[in-house]
Each structure stands twice: as C-alpha cells, then as structure tokens.
Amino acid sequence: MNDIDEAQTSKKAAGEPAGAAPPAEAEGFAASDQLSAENAELRDRLLRALAEIENTRRRAERETADARAYAIAVFARDMLTVADNLARALDNLPAEARAGAEGPFKAFVEGVELTARDLQAALARHGVKKLEPKGEKFDPNFHQAIFEAPDETLPAGTVTQVVQSGWTIGERVLRPAMVGVSKGGPKAAPKSE
Quick one: DSSP state of residue 158? Predict the structure, then answer.
C-alpha cells in the first residue's frame, strides 16, 4: 500500500470524510484568501496613489500656466500709472494746439503719442488689455462706480463716463475701470443668448 492509501484508510478509521481537505490544505486556502484581500487592498492603494499623482501633476501644470500668465501683474500695474500719465498729457492738449503745432513742439507731441502707443502695444503683447466700458452695462467685476448721473436716454446701469481706464491681464482684472453710471432711465433689456 502506498502512503496516500494509508492516509485515506487512517481518515476512514478516524471518522473523517474521504473528500475533505487535509488541515494543511485548509490553512493554505485561508492564507490564499488573506493574500487575495491584501492584494486587492494594495491594488486599491496603488490606484489611489496614481490618481493623487495625476491630480498633483495637473495642479502643478495649472499653477505653472497661471504663474506664466500673471507673473508680470505687479510690474504691469506699476506701468498703468505711466500709461495714464501719457494719456492725460495728450488729453489735456487742446485740439487746436495739436493741429497748429509746428517744429519742435509738433515733434514733442508726436513723440508722446508714439510712446503712449508703444507702451500700450508692449502691455498688450503680455496679455494686458485696456477696458473701454463706455456705453456698456455696468459690471461690478470689471467696473467701479464712483458716481451715478441721471440720464433718461440710457437704460439704468449703463456706463456713461470713464474717469479712469480699467485694465485686465488674461482673465483677471488688473485694475477696475472707474466709471459713472446712468440712473433713472428705462431698465436694460436682458441679454438673449
């Protein structure tokens, strides 16, 4: 008789069923179930870690893009004063004086105009754009109302005067436009989309 037959004969004698797994095999199944559960837990942890890494990568890309787009915001805000002063200088020059300018005075005026245009072009190349809200509906995200003026010809809440130009950089407001807003006119018609 071989060893397997002897083990089955001894099981029968001990009252164990012939088809039952030996205790070592049952322990192996339990260990296999435990390893499968551990494997599933580790797989879940790995997938979560990979998802977190992907989210971190996306966040870093977004922050890098924002840093590139808005890195010059402080410098651009400082340059707005220069642009305002050039615009004020040109606005305070009467049209008759500009038309009748000759010689060095004409060259000076043209130089100031050229400098103002170049500054605005340089700002525009870096994503800084001037807001021209006159005639638009007041938007507190882009405009700062400093007074209301009665005007029955315009819908209430329409920008009637721009006291100081506003500027944006990308999608953000660098400086809101300081504006005068109409009041007392008909209500603005809702925008149809």
Answer: B
pLDDT, tens digit (0-9, with 9 covering 90-100), for 133-151: 998 999 999 999 999 988 8
pTM of the model: 0.61
Residue 117 carries which side chain, given as an amino acid letter?
A: R
Angle formed at CA 23 by CA 20 and CA 29, multiple of 5 degrees:
85
d(CA 147, CA 10): 105
Domain 127-188 - what CATH class? Answer: mainly beta
Taking a C-beta distance cutoff of 8 angstroms, is the pair 182, 147 a contact? no
The DSSP 8-state label assigned to residue 138 in this structure reads P
List of residues 6+ apart from 154 with CB closer than 8 A? 160, 182, 185
Q: If residue 161 lies in a helix (H) or strand (E), which one and from where to where? A: strand 159-164
Segments making up each domain of the chain, as ranges: 21-71, 74-125, 127-188
- The model's pLDDT over 93-108, given as tens digits with 9 standing for 90+, comes to 888 888 888 889 889 9
